[in-house]
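Treating backbone geometry as a discrete language has practical consequences that deserve illustration. No coordinates are needed to read the tokens, only the vocabulary itself. For completeness, the protein is quoted in full, as a sequence line and a line of structure tokens:
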Amino acid sequence: MPRGLVPRRPAKSGRQDTVRPSRPRTPPRGSSGSLPTALRTGPKPGPAARRNSARSAKGYNPLEPKRIAEILKGLDELYPDVTCALTHRSAWELLVATILSAQSTDVNVNRVTPELFRKYPTVQDFAALEPEQLEPDIRSTGFFRNKAKSVVGAAKRIVQAFGGEVPGEMEQLLTLPGVARKTANVVLGTWFQKAVGIVVDTHVTRISRRLELTRNTDPPKIEQDLMKVIPQEKWILFAHQLIWHGRKLCLARAPRCAECRLENLCHAADKTWSTVEIHRSARP
């Protein structure tokens, strides 16, 4: 017997020590009892892939024309003919709906506008109001006091300066209260079919950063970055596609990467599942 090793003696009770079988470990579950997203959709990239990502990214150009073309092709396959989700029958109705959609959802705005336009059918009807009169009708969209001032102010300006017709030029639209480039781009692109710029909302901001099409966080700068790499004939559709993508698959808190047609082109740091390297700079 090797020196220093002493055999264990039997217990005084007469029962010998036994090896207890280990219980199988079960995967952790969320508060609802379901498997966490990462376990349902698949593994995240391993440590080696993350360590090597910085080295591999040195020769990687996210704005390479071939990659941009692949992104556009994937979006065309996913959303071939999408358009603005705001319900409208005229340029004025679209303008009002877009103003109301700030810090709200299109679904909520679409619940409000049918009765709103039934009550006030024309831009002249809105121009005859005081903001306080409009507030109860749009309260559920949030920030209703500022929105009421913008809508009534825009109506008065359109009646006084543009003969009651919503102007179809960027410079003129930007003179309307409550109208910035995003709202103007929505009206120009969706109603007038003019590709003057690219709509940049929260979805476009988040996804264009995830796809490394921009590193900016300021919407006007993001728009300028996108206009440099996206062909002008795709500006209108591209914005609608990113907005729909943000609602359907590329969700803010739990993107459904395993179902995404663009997964192999996306290196976003917050992916829930990935077959490609993760880039730390690619984040919303």
In short: Confidence is low (pLDDT under 50) at residues 1-56.
